[in-house]
């Protein structure tokens, strides 16, 4: 897995620079999402792995499936480069890395919210407002249910962790009692 991310990174960075310079971050984001979905389709996975299909044929296939997005010469060129280098299967990783770069450019950080119970949209929205104030940053939440927390939440933003879980408080009490 780490190897594919390492290989995908230069492509994602190149597309990011192209999108940033062209002030088209959102358009490229949508395009890469579409291309990643196409690349993950089971029939397309077979086509990508088929040695009988040339890079030009794969490029034409991707372009035909991309619809409006492929009318952009940069998108077509990007698909052509990936096909020529046999990297079309890396489109999901390219898209993921691109989104990370885009979020960093826009000043948005990912907040992983670990909760003992599922949170509804209203709870996430309310929590997000408080967390953005605490972390002084715009946040993109990702909620993970972790029953081991017993209750409360634990939030990780980059290398900062805010632990307001019952388990965290019990561990803090145990540490205090030992000392």
From TrEMBL:
Gene3D superfamilies: N-terminal domain of the delta subunit of the F1F0-ATP synthase. F-type ATPases have 2 components, F(1) - the catalytic core - and F(0) - the membrane proton channel. F(1) has five subunits: alpha(3), beta(3), gamma(1), delta(1), epsilon(1). F(0) has three main subunits: a(1), b(2) and c(10-14). The alpha and beta chains form an alternating ring which encloses part of the gamma chain. F(1) is attached to F(0) by a central stalk formed by the gamma and epsilon chains, while a peripheral stalk is formed by the delta and b chains. One of its GO terms (cellular component) is proton-transporting ATP synthase complex. This protein is part of the stalk that links CF(0) to CF(1). It either transmits conformational changes from CF(0) to CF(1) or is implicated in proton conduction. F(1)F(0) ATP synthase produces ATP from ADP in the presence of a proton or sodium gradient. F-type ATPases consist of two structural domains, F(1) containing the extramembraneous catalytic core and F(0) containing the membrane proton channel, linked together by a central stalk and a peripheral stalk. During catalysis, ATP synthesis in the catalytic domain of F(1) is coupled via a rotary mechanism of the central stalk subunits to proton translocation. Belongs to the ATPase delta chain family. It comes from Azospira oryzae (strain ATCC BAA-33 / DSM 13638 / PS). InterPro entries: ATP_synth_OSCP/delta_N_sf (IPR026015), ATPase_OSCP/dsu (IPR000711). GO terms for molecular function: proton-transporting ATP synthase activity, rotational mechanism. Its main location: membrane. Keywords: ATP synthesis, Cell inner membrane, Cell membrane, CF(1), Hydrogen ion transport, Ion transport, Membrane, Transport. This is ATP synthase subunit delta. It is found in: Cell inner membrane; Membrane. The keyword Transferase does not apply. It comes from the Bacteria. NCBIfam families: ATP_synt_delta (TIGR01145), PRK05758.2-2 (NF004402). It is a peripheral membrane protein.
